[in-house]
Write a structure and sequence with these properties.
TIM Barrel, eight-stranded parallel β-sheet, 17 helices, 3 domains, elongated, alpha/beta, Rossmann fold, 469 residues, single chain
Length: 469
């Protein structure tokens, strides 16, 4: 017997909900629609539902589906009503996708790749600054803090840094071209040393650190294999890194070396340093990380070294964290890496325009108040209230048609919203009035924390002041 679902909605969204459900073929459920008596479905809350919904409204249903922007604790509401209450998609037009995919809520809690995040200028920082940066990297998803040593530059407080990081709960690796630096790091208790070769592997006999092995000669897989064999003879742990090269300086051949090494040593622990692509390519790092972590997943590489040096790579660690989880989930699901996370879709979205011109025109015809609504479709921007509908691609073209009665606050609000709408239309992104555009990992964690702190409550205040709530 098919499940019976009750869809809750508002007055304005009800026609679109009915049309969308009616057009869905082969529904795996039966359904009823209940209009809750408010105009805007997005303003629905758990407490409002508990007050307005009566037992008879859902007595024959198995689940209640509420709009995706419904605020509140639905677990508590489910207990109060005695029936599962679930959030649907944020846009009504996404209901076919919501019900058509097997994994409604993909599990992104798991991963099998450790992220080494390098503080490249550690010798120039004091301990407090290093700890602050390490905290930020850990918040972004790093498992190991890599301390970069600078060529021919003194690092007198290296030992103190390693101790301080350990006391703060970090695993530590030290990256240097100088054997003396690595010896000091190992004796101070560093967990990993980057990097040893077939010529310097003997240092591993003096310390307890795990050695990251690289070729003694650039591009020589044979040299790396000799280092691996030497480490096995002295019974010391190691991780092999064939070295990823930049584009036009051996990238393709270096990827082949990773593949060859995995083919020859199916169980060998491996590392890939992705900075030679993310830092040295003028392209968005989110896409580069997605591709590299796809390769990393296929080759079962379980350690990645990454950096945030260039300003355009400032969110590389967050991106690596998302990419490793997404690729792990897709591999476990034996599927393409789609519909797991949108955080790596920075400039574009797969389904940017849920409404078409006909839908917006129909909605505009049902508006009975003077408050302006803004929508975006493939054809451009739409702005409407009870007095009519405007459409265009340039927000300035709307200005002569607006009757704001010298209301500067309302004018400022509409200017900000139309600017967002224009950007969304130009790039192909979702636009929802009164909400920030979604930029995925392009917004760093620090930025998002500031946005959340300063924006809390401000949008609703501006909406009420301008009469759009």
């Amino acid at each position: 017997m098919a499940e019976k679902l009750l869809f809750l909605t508002g007055k304005l969204a009800e026609p679109s909900l009915r049309k969308t459900l009616a057009e869905m073929a082969s529904l795996p459920f039966e359904y009823r629609i209940h209009q809750l008596g408010l105009s805007v479905a997005a303003l629905m809350t758990d407490k409002m539902i508990a007050r307005r919904l009566k037992k008879d409204d859902f007595k024959d249903c198995d689940q209640i589906i509420v709009p995706g922007r419904c605020r509140g604790d639905l677990d508590v509401l489910s207990e109060q009503l005695g029936i599962p209450v679930l959030r649907g998609p944020e846009e009504v037009k996404d209901l076919p996708i919501y019900f058509g995919r097997e994994r409604k809520q993909p599990d992104l809690s798991r991963y099998d790749v450790n992220i080494f995040a390098e503080i490249v200028d550690a010798p120039d920082r004091d301990i407090d600054s290093i700890l602050e940066r390490a905290d930020y990297y850990r918040d972004c998803g790093a498992n190991v803090i890599d301390i970069g040593c600078l060529p021919e530059e003194q690092f007198p407080h290296m030992e103190e840094v390693i101790v301080a990081l350990h006391e703060a709960g970090f695993k530590v690796s030290v990256d240097s071209l100088e054997l003396d630096d690595l010896r000091r790091a190992g004796k101070a208790g560093a967990d990993y040393l980057l990097s040893l070769t077939e010529k310097t592997y003997h240092l591993a006999e003096e310390v307890d650190s795990v050695a990251i092995l690289v070729p003694a000669e650039r591009g020589s897989l044979v040299s790396l294999e000799r280092a691996m064999e030497s480490m096995d003879k002295i019974n010391r742990p190691w991780i092999a890194d064939p070295i990823l090269e930049p584009i036009h300086f051996g990238l393709t051949n270096s990827i082949v070396r990773y593949h060859d090494l995995r083919s020859r040593y199916p169980d060998a622990p491996m590392m890939m340093g992705v900075g030679n692509l993310t830092e040295l390519t003028d392209a968005d790092t989110s896409g580069i990380n997605a591709i590299l972590f796809g390769i990393i997943s296929e080759l079962n590489i379980t350690n990645v070294l990454t950096t945030e040096v260039s300003p355009h790579a400032r969110s590389a660690i967050q991106e690596a964290n998302v990419a490793r989880r997404m690729m792990f989930a897709a591999r476990e699901d034996n599927s393409l890496p789609r519909d797991f996370s949108s955080d790596l879709l920075v400039a574009h979205e797969r389904r940017p325009f849920p409404d078409n011109a006909e839908d917006i025109t129909e909605l505009a015809g049902n508006i009975k108040d003077p408050n302006y609504r803004i929508k975006v479709a493939e054809q451009g921007l739409y702005m409407f209230n009870r007095d009519g509908l405007m459409q265009g691609t340039d927000p300035f073209a709307f200005y002569p048609q607006l009757d704001l009665k010298d209301d500067t606050g309302h004018a400022f609000y509409l200017g900000a919203e139309l600017a967002r709408a224009q950007i969304a239309w130009q790039l192909g992104k979702r636009y929802t009035q009164d909400e920030e555009l979604e930029w995925g990992c392009a917004v760093t964690k620090k930025q998002q924390d500031l946005i959340d702190q300063k924006a809390e409550g401000s949008t609703m205040k501006s909406r009420k002041k301008c009469g759009t709530a």
